[in-house]
Design goal:
The chain contains 15 helices and twelve strands. It has 352 residues and is an alpha/beta fold. Strands 1, 4, 5, 6, 9, 10, 11 and 12 form an eight-stranded parallel beta sheet that branches. Strands 2-3 form a two-stranded parallel sheet. Strands 7-8 form a two-stranded antiparallel ribbon. Helix 12 crosses helix 13. The longest helix has 19 residues.
């Protein structure tokens, strides 16, 4: 099913490009700006099984997008500047923001040099447990467990189910099914219990993944000294806020901000919701983010920034730079707003 979805999205992007429809839709749906969403930036790995590849782009693709925006004479600004333009209703020039979720070390090693080439500011949203080396990147742990196995046994729906993992294609199908099942579990502790059991059975050190992939507080402090870098919050544990009680969700937001400010000695006024889709962030979470003092908060709901986005500063939509679609031909499609408009049924704002 996920492979079919990927194929449909690719076909849609190519249809918009080859038909030229993105040029016709640009005046209506390009909006006043865009917030681009990334996670990893690093060279392509050689592994046949890469179920999290959508979360990474190669440095050259990032460079191509930045060059494309320069050619369009679009201002590349920090989230503080985007907030100011929205609150002041200053839409004389279009703008773009670049945001990176989780706090991966490759943001420093591969993204920062490219951003420096263009003098382009960007925001990295840090989950504080990842920076402390105690967080659990369960989607990476799941990938590694399946990579180690020829078959997986898991209690899906309370029934012990055996999933084939003997080939790269079978591993991908197993990952997709388990990913959806894990995200459907009632609470974070349920997900963690199943992931921990899986890692134990298949020899994966889940506790070391954050230290391996994410910047520590010391690394973040040096990284944040670069004038192009803004550090934002991404909660404490990277939990699905919508599944938490209001008290726990509020604690995740306020404490993540406080930890960053204490560790880095600078304000953390911008937030990215973990997962950020409709089942992880909705009106309650938008209100909690505002109450916690965040100037902006971004979702993973697809969309451009429009003048009316000023009324939804803690529910901002983003445009994903997805590792599965690193074709430079689609860059004008992405910046036209045509793709996100079609995805949203031609709604400009999705904040309900």
């Amino acid at each position: 099913m996920k492979q079919l979805k990927k194929t449909v999205i690719r076909a849609g992007l190519e249809a918009l490009y080859f038909s030229g429809a993105h040029r016709l839709l640009r005046p209506l749906f390009a909006g006043v700006g865009a917030v681009f969403m990334l996670h990893h930036v690093r060279p392509r790995r050689a592994d046949a099984f890469q179920p999290n590849h959508h979360l990474e782009v190669e440095p050259e693709f990032l460079r191509a997008m930045l060059s494309h925006l320069r050619d369009l004479d679009i201002d590349i600004v920090a989230m503080d500047e985007a907030h100011q333009r929205l609150t002041e209703r200053n839409f004389a020039r279009r703008f773009a923001c670049f945001t990176f979720d989780d706090g991966y070390r490759d943001n420093r090693d591969f993204a920062l040099p490219v951003m420096r080439e263009f003098g382009a500011p960007f925001t990295v949203y840090v989950a504080s447990d990842f920076a402390e080396g105690t967080g659990r990147l369960w989607w990476v742990a799941l990938e590694r467990a399946i990579a180690n196995a020829s078959a997986i046994e898991v209690p899906i729906g309370g029934i012990m189910t055996r999933l084939d993992a003997s080939t790269a294609q079978a591993k991908q199908a197993a990952f997709d099914r388990m990913h959806d099942w894990l995200r459907s579990l009632p609470g974070e502790h349920d997900m963690q219990r199943e992931i921990s059991a899986l890692c134990t059975r298949h020899g994966v050190d889940e506790t070391g993944i954050a230290r391996e992939l994410c910047m520590s507080w010391d690394e973040l402090k040096a990284f944040a000294d670069d004038p192009l870098v803004t550090i934002g919050a991404h909660t404490i544990t990277h939990c699905n806020l919508a599944k938490q009680s209001e008290e726990v969700a509020a604690h995740e937001l306020s404490t993540s901000r406080a930890r960053i400010e204490a560790a880095l000695q600078r304000q953390a006024l911008h937030l990215a919701y973990p997962y950020g889709d409709r089942i992880a962030a909705g009106p309650r979470e938008f209100a909690l983010a505002k109450a916690a003092g965040f100037k902006t908060a971004v979702t993973t709901r697809p969309g451009m920034i429009f003048p009316e986005s000023a009324d939804h500063l803690t529910a901002l939509q983003r445009v994903s730079l997805n590792g599965n679609y690193q074709d430079q031909r689609i860059l004008p499609v992405l910046t036209s707003g045509a793709a996100t408009a079609m995805w949203n049924g031609f709604r400009r704002i999705d904040a309900a």
